[in-house]
Amino acid sequence: MCLAIPMQIVEIDGYNARCEAKGQSRDVSLFLMQDEPLAVGDFVMVHTGYAQQKMSAEDARLAWELYDEMLAMLEQPR
Predict the structure, then answer these.
(1) What is the span of the domain harbouring residue 37?
(2) pLDDT at 1
(3) Rounded CA gap, 31 and 11, in Å?
(4) Do the beta carbons of residue 21 and residue 67 sit within 8 Å?
């Protein structure tokens, strides 16, 4: 199973961006989204190092809530 991770853009340099989520930073390629206007502060879905979709802050928050629920379920003893 593959998951895309919601991240917030904190810096843009050409087709590359520094993005953050949950206290972690990653360098992300914006190449696949070159026709989409992106700015610092925008949220994007990141998969395998590539931003693939712009999203709202609310959608990013909801995605993280779901991921946190899934992780909590995995951590429960069986």
Answers:
(1) 5-75
(2) 63
(3) 15
(4) no
Count of structural domains within the chain:
1
Dihedral, 32, 34, 36, 37 alpha carbons, nearest 10: 140
At 28-41, the pLDDT tens digits run: 999 999 999 999 99
> In the structure encoding, which two tokens stand for residue 67, read together?
């991921």
pLDDT > 70 fraction of the chain, expressed in percent and rounded: 99
Exposure string for 34-59, b = 16+ CB within 10 A, e = fewer: eeeebeeebbbbbeeeebeeebeeee
What CATH number does the domain containing 56 carry?
2.30.30.140
Which CA distances in Å does 13 have to 5, 19, 23?
A: 20, 12, 21
> What's the mean pLDDT in 45-56?
97
CA-to-CA distance for 43 and 39, rounded, in angstroms?
9
Query: Could you tell me the pTM of the whole model?
Result: 0.88
